[in-house]
Design brief:
Blueprint (H helix, E strand, L loop, with lengths): L4 E3 L5 E3 L9 E2 L5 E4 L4 H12 L8 E8 L2 E12 L4 E2 L6 E2 L3 H15 L26 H5 L14 H5 L4 H10 L16 H14 L3 H13 L23 H14 L4 H10 L4 H7 L14 H5 L8 E2 L1 H7 L1 H4 L3 E2 L2 E2 L3 H4 L7 E3 L9 E4 L2 E3 L12 E4 L5 E5 L4 E7 L9 H11 L2 H4 L4
Antiparallel strand pairs: 1-2, 3-4, 4-6, 5-6, 5-17, 6-7, 8-9, 10-11, 12-13, 13-14, 15-16, 16-17
Helix pairs in contact: 1-15, 2-6, 2-7, 8-9
């Protein structure tokens, strides 16, 4: 792939807005970009989602796929902003929500590779205050695999608290004082917000720096990946506008799911809440985003902060590039980022629940990386990454050598967006990957 580069104030080489790919075939309209021989099916699927007149069609989106280190799909299109009509460009970036957790897991994997952490030792060994309220024996693996019973916090916090260094003491007290809501290791519930709060404190104590600064130096800059935890001002002009579903619409659709698909995760989430189990609601509500709701994550103070559960930003291509060494068992373009032996345990399911207490679906995690149902994103159970609220996805498949990034600004209301699922299915129906499905 040939692309123009610009050097940021921090020295990172990032694609410019005038970049264009040099692949075998131009994108089918209305998409832009290109695709390699054999990947036309997924390119047509992406274009069809841009052209659709359905209520949940794309507004603006991008898809980037690398196969064994080579770019094979580089597509974008639609509008970054509806009001102005500003088009989505190749390097348009967006808040990635929980895709952030996969990036945080990368940082822990790299510390693991350097012998700087022990997955099965108590967190309290590196953070003595964590031992309070019955957490003294909890291991790092248990916590980052969402099995620690810390899916919510009792002490009220706000996003503003988590974004300001002046409130660090308040946040630390809330984390240390929280008592697990189930016996650690004996159940699983998605730590939607608390994952990042605990992860960033542990990482700082292990590495002596933040997750964002470590990843930029050790992974993102060497890969020319534009993803960031803590987004600098010089990237602000590349942002798309987020379009989340209105809350009344989301609730009414979930109610509809109760009637037509009662076993769906959305119907189960609603039924659990109506039945008095507040775990799911509490997992997503504290720290509170305030009156702005989900759009608070697109506000400048939050984008500037390194919130290791949801504030990472980037383009689809930057996200796919970040996963290149993980798809290549630690290596990309002759540089070894991690040993294959460090990645291999992540390829196995370490924690799994047929019905996660928060997401109400079969799901699991391995050392912080999401492990999905086979065939949902990928036919190989060895694959891993992380999905984000609304549909964004960063994923890798070491079996096929696939690195995948998808970003969009129309957020879906479901636990897993049908648009990204359709793209994943189309990708693995492409001729170069058909044999690897077996």
């Amino acid at each position: 792939m040939i692309q123009a580069l610009v050097v940021t104030a921090k020295g990172a080489a990032l694609p410019t807005m005038s970049s264009r790919t040099s692949l075998d075939h131009p994108a089918p309209g209305p998409a832009e970009g290109g695709y390699a021989d054999g990947f036309g099916l997924v390119a047509r699927r992406f274009a069809a989602q841009l052209a659709s007149d359905a209520d949940d069609r794309e507004i603006g989106a991008a898809l980037s796929v690398y196969h064994r280190g080579r770019p094979v799909v580089d597509l974008w299109g639609g509008m970054a902003d509806v009001q102005s009509g500003r088009p989505w460009q190749r390097d348009t970036r967006i808040v990635l929500f929980s895709v952030t957790k996969g990036l945080a897991a990368m940082a822990f994997a790299m510390l693991d590779d350097r012998g700087k952490l022990a997955w099965d030792e108590p967190v309290a060994d590196v953070w003595p205050g964590f031992a309070a309220a019955g957490k003294g024996a909890m291991t790092l693996r248990t916590l980052l695999n969402h099995r620690g019973g810390l899916a919510y916090l009792d002490a009220p916090l706000t996003l503003d608290d988590c974004s300001r260094p002046e409130a660090a003491g308040k946040v630390l007290a809330a984390l240390e004082g929280q008592r697990p809501s189930w016996v650690p290791g004996q159940d699983q519930g998605y730590h939607a917000l608390t994952f990042g709060l605990y992860a960033q404190e542990i990482f700082r104590r292990l590495a002596g720096e933040t997750i964002g600064s470590f990843l930029q130096r050790e992974l993102f800059d060497p890969l020319a990946a534009d993803v960031r935890l803590g987004t600098p001002a010089d990237l602000d002009d590349r942002f798309a506008t987020l379009y989340p579903p209105p809350i009344p619409s989301r609730v009414s659709r979930m109610v509809g799911k109760l009637a037509v698909d009662p076993l769906s995760p959305e119907a189960r989430i609603l039924r659990a809440g109506l039945g008095g189990d507040a775990t799911g609601r509490r997992a997503f509500s504290n720290p509170s985003p305030g009156r702005a709701g989900i759009l608070a994550y697109n506000a400048l103070p939050v984008r500037r902060a390194e919130l290791a559960w949801a504030s990472a930003t980037g383009s689809a291509d930057g996200l796919a590039r970040a996963y290149l060494p993980f798809a290549g068992l630690g290596e990309h373009e002759g540089r070894r980022y991690l040993r294959a032996a460090t990645i291999e345990p992540v390829m196995r399911r370490q924690g799994w629940s047929e019905r996660d207490r928060v997401l109400q679906k079969p799901v699991g995690w391995s050392q912080g990386f999401l492990k999905e149902e086979r065939y949902l994103f990928c036919p190989h159970s060895e694959s891993f990454g992380h999905a984000g609220m609304g549909g964004a996805l960063g994923w890798c498949d070491p079996v096929s050598g696939i690195s995948f990034g998808y970003a969009m600004n129309r957020m879906d209301w479901r636990v897993r967006s049908p648009r990204v699922l359709a793209l994943c299915r189309a990708l693995y129906e492409c001729e170069p990957l058909l044999a690897s499905k077996l």
